[in-house]
Amino acid sequence: MSVGTELYRKTLLTVAGNKAVESLSLKYGKKLAGKFIAGSTLEEALEEIRTLNSKGIMATLDHLGEGITHLNEAALYRDEYVRLVEGIAHSGADSNVSLKPTQMGLALDPEAGYQNIRTVASKAKRHDLFVRIDMEDSPFTQATLDLVRRLHAEGLDNTGTVLQAYLHRTEEDTRDMIREGIRLRLVKGAYKEPATVAYQSTAEVMHQFKTMIRHHLDQGVYTAVASHDDHIINWTKQYAKDRDISPDAFEFQMLYGLRMSEQERLAQEGYRIRCYVPYGTMWYPYYTRRLAEKPANLWMVLKNMFR
Prior knowledge:
- By secondary structure, this protein is α/β, with parallel strands linked by helices.
- Helix content is 53%, strand content 14%.
- The chain has a single domain (37-282), classed as TIM Barrel (Alpha-Beta Barrel), CATH 3.20.20.220.
- The longest helix has 21 residues, at 71-91.
């Protein structure tokens, strides 16, 4: 990522947080956001997953929503996730589950949020499904790690979480999670964070990302590398090849609507590839983070505005 691209990312995230911009986007941007969203309903998302599976691409299914203001909203999301788990199980889709802890009430009432997540994880375990507890911005990092540890302590080892390479704390967290047997998705990080908690230099973030991947592969821990960056993808492939690590020991993860032909190509090459498939109506925060990742995403949307 160049200095210009990093400035673009920070600027767009700042602008996207403006209430007037959000209001206009919600009014006019839904059709454009559809590029990154599999549909408004669970049924639409499951249909998209069936198509992905037919191409050798696995999925992780996410019901959009975060930053709720009332616990009754969390209960509604919990119930939808129970329905989501049942939908995956009954459809036979090759998919696991992703959810955000604030969506379940973590920021409002940590215990209530935990119990909502536990309900989903318990249902998923009965169907032999894995649940990824997504990582949000840095104020929730420790709380998220703690709740995943608690889930494991209660026997719900079908859960894991996400670590973000740009946080200063991540290398130590990576070692701790590996030691504790908690499965991770490894990402660069997509939130706007201050220099006090996150690296601002692209070179430092990339170094941290590679260090995380190396720790996993060297210790024989199943590794989920979530990136659209050719450099990271090719580096991971070469690192595994040089050390005679099987392609079954790791997977690549990409987002629905981005680099779909590359996802198919990786599957055809024999690599495990998983597509993050979101659905629902609360698309704005997710959509703006996708646009902020690189200028090409915004350019793609602007071109489609005139079609």
